[in-house]
Structures are given as structure tokens and as C-alpha cells.
Amino acid sequence: MLRSLDFMSKTSGRLFVISGPSGVGKGTVILRLLDLVPDLAISVSATTRPPRELEIEGRHYHFLTDEQFNQMVERDEFSEWCWVHSKRYGTPRYEIEPRIENGHHVLVEIDVQGAEKLRKEYPDLLSIFIAPPSEEVLLDRLSNRKTEPKDVIDSRLSHARHELSQKHLYTHVVVNDTLDDCVQEVNALICNFITEGES
């Protein structure tokens, strides 16, 4: 069901989607944005995978059983959901719609598959793709983590190539060459969309 947000008044919130390949630094960019943009909250996804060490329910994810996830799907309580590595991930409507209607701004960090579904569901959102300066730079960033074996890095790089092939579908593409410049550019895009409603 299409849920356009074009009914929003000047006091209503805005919806933002940020995507980018693993290692591009989008998590750091988002943390900076949460400090810079007034009344901006990040949407917490739901998943059927078990929590990892140090992950907190309601902060990192809403951890659901298969039955709970099925019930939410049946009640149309997800803005989008998809399978990822045999587990399901979804964006609950309650993370987005009530907040926007009450004047809050919502940011969804999501992969290209989920972003495509959200663009169809909410055609008035602003979508931003964070890209690396080059594939070589991205490989260096992934390798410098030194927390994952080579086969995992190769898999992430292959997935990154697919994600980069979809960047033209986004409203804006911002290259994260220098973190401060990237944050400044994304912040300007978001603030302009909030104040002017222009992408």
C-alpha cells in the first residue's frame, strides 16, 4: 500500500534514507548527523536473527521470533522487509509514521534492496547514497579493519560493487573522501529538505 507523505505540513517531519557499502563510513556520518540535526531520530530495524554480543534490544534492533515477524507481516506493520542471509529484516511502520506525523524527522540506514522498497512506499522521502572515492579506497578501508578474514572482505567487496551499481537510483550521491566534508554535505542536504522541502 502506497503511503505518500505529501500531506505533511510545515510542522510535520521528514523521512531520510541513507545507504552505502560496508566500510564507506556511513555509520560514523549518521552519528554526526544525529548531533547536528535537531529532532532527527534513527529508525531501529526488526530482525529474526539472534542478538550478537553487546547488542541491545530496541537500540540496535528489535529482535523478533519468526512467529512475531510473521504476525507483523500479516498485519502490514512493516514499511518494508526482506530476506538477508536466511534471516529477515524489516522497518516497522511505528518507527516512521507516528514520528513524522508528530513533527519528528526520521533517518533509515538501509541496504539498496530495502531502500528501493521504501522509495515506492514513501515517494516523498530524500535518499542519499554514501560512496567511497574509489573501489581501491574502499578495499583499503575494509582491509584496515583487521577484524575479518580475506574471504569475508572479498564477499563484502563483491556486495559493495552491486550496491554501487544502484547509486544512480538515489536522490543524491555523496562521496566520503574526507569525513568532515561528507558530513557537511549530507547535513546541508538534510537541512535544506527539512526547511524547503526540496531535494
Q: What would you say this structure looks like, in words?
A:
- The longest helix is centred in the C-terminal third of the chain and has 18 residues, at 179-196.
- The strands form two sheets. Strands 2-7-1-8-9 form a five-stranded parallel beta sheet, sandwiched between helices.
- It has helices spanning 26-36, 66-74, 97-101, 112-121, 135-144, 150-164, 179-196, and strands at 15-19, 40-42, 46-47, 62-63, 78-84, 87-92, 105-109, 126-131, 172-175.
- The protein has seven helices and nine strands; from the N terminus they run βαβββαββαβαβααβα.
- The protein folds into two domains: 1-43 and 104-199, P-loop containing nucleotide triphosphate hydrolases (Rossmann fold, 3-Layer(aba) Sandwich); 44-95, Guanylate Kinase phosphate binding domain, CATH 3.30.63.10.
- By secondary structure, the protein is α/β, with parallel strands linked by helices.
Can you summarize this structure?
The protein is α/β, with parallel strands linked by helices and 199 residues long.
Task: Name the features.
199 residues, alpha/beta, Rossmann fold, Guanylate Kinase phosphate binding domain, 2 domains, five-stranded parallel beta sheet, four-stranded mixed beta sheet, 20% strand, disordered N terminus
